[in-house]
Amino acid sequence: MKDLYTFDYTPELALQTYNTVREAYGRFFDEFKIPYLVAEADSGNMGGNLSHEFHIPINKGEDHIISCSNCQFVANEELAESKISTAASVSPLPIADTEIATWTGVTSDRLSLVVVYYPRVSPQNNAAGSPSNGNNEVNLHAVKAVIPMLDTRIENPLELWKAALVPCEGDARYAADHSTVIEVFDGHIPSTFFNTERSSHYTELNSTGGLLTFPQDKVSRHRIRTHPTSGNPLNLLRTKDGDPCTVCDSGSLKIQRAVELGHTFFLGSRYSDPLRAFVAVPSTLPRPISRPLASDQAPEVDVQVDRGQPALSTGQVALEMGCHGIGITRLIGTVAESLADEKGLNWPRVMAPFEVVIISRKGLEVEASEVYDVLTAGNDVRHSYGLAEAILSTNQPLDDAREYKIDAVLDDRPRPLAWKLEDADLIGYPVIVILGKTWVTDGQCEVQCRRLNDLQINVLVQELKATISSMLAQL
Of 270, 320, 432, 436, which shows the fewest CB atoms inside 10 Å? Predict the structure, then answer.
């Protein structure tokens, strides 16, 4: 892991540093010449209120990245769902087409049972009102945004909730003061179910689960149907391909599996305030101000400045922090998996052991060595190899890229040509230069590149370096 920690003395400077690092990370991933996504992200346990993730889409990825077909919106599932959950576009479904299911959870103190009601439109699902495992349908991040104390790691929430109530089973008054059922309703559920079906469903849940030994009317119950901040109906379902975008209102959302390879966090004073990490600021420098940052400093992100504890004394302020990292080891594996095909690896130019491998048939070993010299030579290329005289005798100019030394390797192992070609594909060299039949008949090298649509062309030696340099620029 490559880690970077940054420290500034004002939120404005810290945000400038954050954007500088984020742009540098973007240039870093640009070098691989493969698609990647930069997603707005939830900072989670790390803290702070601004973060971005860098992902490479791959079928074996563990993360789900959501992007819009029309606008620039890209976010991980946590943040995307929190935005969708506040959308006013959620509307109830007809009760005849809706099957109500439930997901149950428990808070971290084990004293509040959380029951989520959501619709499932499918004839083979359980009967309406029956408890179900909705992990594949309920967006737990959206539920946790409504109930922050929800512990999503628990597999048997009913048993844990019951166990937490055992000490107070004989005292119904104590139990009512210390136990709660929080019912959360997805906005697609019609108000008729919300008003009439809730009580009977809870009775069934109580009787089949054996949750309580005291009367259920002694349990404190709370209902949540709208978002606590926006007041909009809740959308607690996981995003699906084709769902409408709530940012531009005209695009559709696409879900891609991806691997996270980099992350940037704007931490502010999240850690410096409690640790009292302060720095003295000379009076000649601009002093920090306690206000929201300007919108043009963080496009599409509302960053609030939380000053926390006051400074120790005049001239001292809390450090504004940033935390950034790139997973180097997982980067290698992800890129390899992303570009590999049935023939073998297929490295980007910046990661390949060599940019070019030169392979020749038996009897052309000397000529292959001279081609190697052509590709790897510098400014004195005209006098560094015997082949230059043959090139100059044709009055053909050497390529304009002769100053660039291509990083090449000569495969001079005593093996058949076909064996060395298969090995080159397996290793994943970006470009393969072959001295074979066309060299004998026309004096041309065959150049192959799998990443450029399995490109195979024949090139004269005097054009070889320019041709390969042009190809490498795309890799």
Answer: 436
pLDDT digits (tens, 9 = 90+) for 392-429: 444 444 444 445 689 999 999 999 999 999 999 999 99
Which of 96-100, 156-160, 223-227, 449-453 has the largest mean confidence?
Answer: 449-453
Read off the pLDDT of each residue in 186-209 and give the average, rounded to a whole number. 57
φ/ψ (deg, to 5) at 50? -155, 125
Amino acid 276: pLDDT = 92
